[in-house]
Structures are given as structure tokens and as C-alpha cells.
Amino acid sequence: MRANFRMQRLHVETDLRKDAPVEADKEQFHYLANVLRAEAGQDVLLFNGRDGEWIARLAFPTRKRIEMTPVELARPQPQPSDLHYLFAPLKVGRLDYLVQKAVEMGAGLLQPVMTQHVQGKITSLDRLEANVIEAAEQCGILSIPRVAAPVKLRDLLDSWPQDRRIIYCDEGDAGQNPLPVLANVKERKLALLIGPEGGFSEEERQWLRSLDFVTAIPLGPRILRADTAAVAAMAVVQAAIGDWR
Fold it and tell me: What DSSP element (H or E) covers 59?
């Protein structure tokens, strides 16, 4: 069932069930009362990443409180995506863009990876999670991707499960077309690894190519910025071997 983009969508942490009121938090109150000028009896959509999406009716029990009462299930909760998105943090702004696009395009786990040439850093997991929720609210997504703490590339790969294949975007690959390479990937469990703005080091490239559970792919004849490459790689993987098929 497709998302309804004519109604406002709000993410909440509490459980959702019919006729059980949910109180708007401070930011939601400001948004509903002062930005939208919402009125009692108006409907919004609520989701929490667990209980599907609900049509909820607004009530104003006091001047400083808004209750949102689920009245009808609009969309059932889908199975979460299993695609792991491994990325070297970019600078602020471009990192926000990368995270938002990963959520839109079906990442199930966001894993920051610290590489030798990484230029950005994760200063706050709360900010990362807020970006994830904002993207989900805007794009009609019901399953909220998990956000993991940053980890060094070597530490990540030393403990990597052998049944999940990593698709690694290698800017130094001599080829141009990733589709023939992806056609030979048979595993259902997948992860996509995106490098930093400065690219992977030669040591990292050689090491990644030596691992049996890693498949290197090119991304065409042009040099792409890291945030552009991240979106392009996700689209290619989802279309060729992911959930777009």
C-alpha cells in the first residue's frame, strides 16, 4: 500500500494501538499548533517503526497539550530491509544528505566506518538518528533503519559474518559497468561499502580485494563525489540484486 503524502506524518516512540491517545512532545506540539495551525478533529499519520502507520485524530485537552488518538490502521508494518549500508563519514551537510538518501533508498542498517583517508566524523549519533527519522517521515517509510556506532574498517571486517557479502565501490577499478559483476552475486544478505571523500588507500583497496566475502564494482567512467557515488551505488545494487527487482 502506497504512502499518503496529503497528510502530515509524525514519528513517535510509544506503542500505537486503536483508541490509545499519544501525547505530542514539545517539538510536535509546536509544529502542530504553531506551524500547521492544526485544529481539534484534524487527522495526522503516526508511525513508530513497529506497529504500522495509523490515522490519528487530534484533540486539545488543554492549551499546552495535544493528544493524537489512533483511530484506523492506514498501512501494516512491513518487514525491515536487510541491506547494510557501510559508509565513511563525510563533512557535515554532505553527511546529512548521504544519510537521508540511504534511508530513502532502502538501507536497513547505517554503519559509519572509519578509514585511513576519512575526512568527516560522527560527533553525535543522536543527530544521525534524527536525520534518519526526518527522512522516514518525509518519504513514507515505516521501517526505521538502525544506526550503529562508528567502527574502524579493519575491526569491522575482522569480525564480519561470512554469509553477508559486501559490495565495495572501487574508484580505481579498470572497468566501467557494475552490472555484469553484480549478476554473479548469489548471496541474499548484502552490505554496501562506500569510501571517504579522499578514497580508499591503496593498502585498503588491496586488502578488500583479497577477502572472499567482498565484491568490488566500478561506478562508470566518471569520477563521482562521495555523496553522489553513495546514491549511485545504492541505486545500482537495489536495481540489480536488491529489492527493486
Answer: strand 53-62
Q: Which amino acid is at 159?
A: S
pLDDT in tens, 4-35: 778 999 999 999 999 999 999 999 999 999 99
Sequence-distant contacts of 94-97: CB under 8 A, at least 24 apart: 94/120, 94/225, 94/226, 94/227, 95/120, 96/131, 97/227
Give me the mean pLDDT over the 187-216 stretch.
92
User: Which cell goes with 15?
Assistant: 506503542
pTM: 0.89
CATH number at residue 62: 2.40.240.20
Distance CA 12, CA 237 (A): 31
Per-residue confidence (pLDDT) for residue 68, from 0 to 100: 98
> Which of the listed residues 52, 75, 98 is the one where a domain comes to its end?
75
Domain residues for the domain of 71 are 9-75
Residue 195 neighbours by CB under 8 Å, 6+ apart: 88, 115, 117, 169, 171, 226, 229
| Burial of 139 (C-beta count, 10 Å sphere; 0-12/13-18/19+) | middle
When divided into structural domains, the chain yields a total of: 2
